[in-house]
Amino acid sequence: MYDPPPEPPSESDCCGTGCADCVFDVYDRECARWRRRRRIGEGDRLRRDLLSATTHKPYRIVSARPLGDDVHAYRFAATPESVGRLPVAYTQHVHIRLADGLSRPYTPVALGDDDCSFDVLIKAYLGGRFTGRLLEMTVGDVVAVRGPSGGVRHDGYDSIVMFGGGTGVAAFVGLIGSLLDNDKCETLLRLHYLCKTLDGVLMRKELAEYAAYWNCSVHLYLTREHDWSQCSKSFWYNENITEGRISQDGMAEIIDRQQNLRTLWLICGNDEFNQYFFNSLQNHNIKQDHIQLLDNTVKSLKIS
């Protein structure tokens, strides 16, 4: 059982700006959870010694490959090499910090079953300080990782409806896969994924495989595809692809299909994307308690 007590953060780990989720608050919660596990004798094979919500741990770059549209798939693993599985639940995020102190949160799309690794999708922005430095690094180079943080509880829902934009789909890929791997799970899964073009659809093969399950549907929306007639020749069998964005009428249809179901609504994209879908759900009388935003950078969401 790898379950040492949580490590206390240093004063320098706190940014001093009054964050709602200060690293010292995280430490207090982790201590309470650790005491509970010790009290009830709850044990597992998760390597809690290799990942901490309060302090950074060294991780090496195992692989890095481009996926298109300036998106790269990275795999990081604990260093030195270790055996086990990291204590991360899908929809949670980890903070990756570079040597110069720059740090960004990312949601793992996959976890290694026995090599203490995790995969993330990273969007390289023009002039971006963090991604610019990360892309200069090579396999074997080491970063610092802290986490996990955040995440959503989805127990007790009949259905989960997800709205993802661009790399925001990363927040849902792991969650969908883990639920479909559970033979006893009968939760209905509905993913609505917006991309600019068909070439920009991330993890398309995995999404197509998910859509083959009876309780999962994947709807793709291409918002800036210029030659639709040519593009449509590249559709795969049974892919559900629509030209353009989701209109308010489209939102009404999506919501109507969820009548009589206890539904959790998840949103992950940029600020504009999140605000649009949050407002749309509220305008259709979806209770705020059943809406969760998974983008870790949202600061300006307006609640009507």
Topology:
Blueprint (H helix, E strand, L loop, with lengths): L22 H18 L16 E12 L2 E8 L13 E6 L5 E4 L3 E2 L5 E7 L5 H8 L5 E9 L8 E7 L4 H11 L7 E8 L8 H8 L4 E7 L5 H4 L8 E4 L4 H9 L6 E6 L2 H13 L7 E3 L11
Parallel strand pairs: 8-9, 8-12, 9-10, 10-11, 12-13
Antiparallel strand pairs: 1-2, 1-7, 2-6, 3-4, 3-7, 5-6
Describe, in short, the structure shown:
23% of the residues lie in helices and 27% in strands.
Comma- or semicolon-separated keywords:
6-stranded parallel beta sheet, alpha/beta, single chain, 304 residues
Structure commentary:
The chain has 304 residues and is an alpha/beta fold. 23% of the residues lie in helices and 27% in strands. It has helices at residues 23-40, 129-136, 170-180, 204-211, 228-231, 248-256, 271-283, and strands at 57-68, 71-78, 92-97, 103-106, 110-111, 117-123, 142-150, 159-165, 188-195, 216-222, 240-243, 263-268, 291-293. It is globular, with a radius of gyration of 20 Å. The protein starts with 22 loop residues before the first helix and ends in an 11-residue tail after the last strand. 30% of the residues are buried. The model has no long low-confidence stretch (mean pLDDT 88).
Shape: globular
The biggest sheet, with number of strands, parallel, antiparallel or mixed sense and barrel status, is: 7 strands, antiparallel
State the separation between the terminal residues, measured CA to CA: 47 Å
- Beta-strand proportion: 25-35%
What are the low-pLDDT stretches, counting only 5+ consecutive residues below 50? Answer: none
